[in-house]
Amino acid sequence: MNDQTLLPDRLLTRAEVEVNFGLSRRFLEISAHREDGPPMIKIDRSVRYRVSDLRAWVDKQTVSFDVQTAPSNK
């Protein structure tokens, strides 16, 4: 299963996020602590990630470069 076949409201464990989105469990733990990672849902002691939140967060991480404004190496 890849992230394109997952329903948007499905809740994933960190292990499932790692398999489907390529974000390591350790990254998710650290980013949760720093509060700069994908939004998470806490249910008692469990942590889950909504597929639609993960997709939106990944999209926001996109960096684009404008060739005309890139610094010159002259």
Describe the structure.
By secondary structure, this protein is of the alpha+beta class. The chain has one domain. 38% of the residues lie in helices and 14% in strands. The chain has a three-stranded antiparallel sheet. Strand 2 (41-43) and strand 3 form a beta hairpin. The radius of gyration is 16 Å and the shape is elongated. The relative contact order is 0.19.
Keywords:
alpha+beta, 74 residues, single chain, three-stranded antiparallel sheet, 3 helices, 38% helix, 3 strands
Unreliable stretches: none
Order of secondary-structure elements: EHHEEH
Which oligomerization state do the chains in this entry correspond to? Answer: single chain
Strand content: 5-15%
Mean pLDDT score, rounded?
Answer: 90
**Strands ordered across the widest β-sheet:** 1-3-2
Number of domains: 1
| Count of discrete alpha- or pi-helical segments spanning 4 or more residues | 3
Gyration radius, to the nearest Å?
A: 16 Å
| Apparent shape | elongated
Q: Give the distance, in angstroms, between the N- and C-terminal Cα atoms.
A: 47 Å
Largest sheet, strands/sense/barrel: 3 strands, antiparallel
Decide which structural class fits the backbone. Answer: alpha+beta
Helix content: 25-40%
Number of DSSP strands? Answer: 3
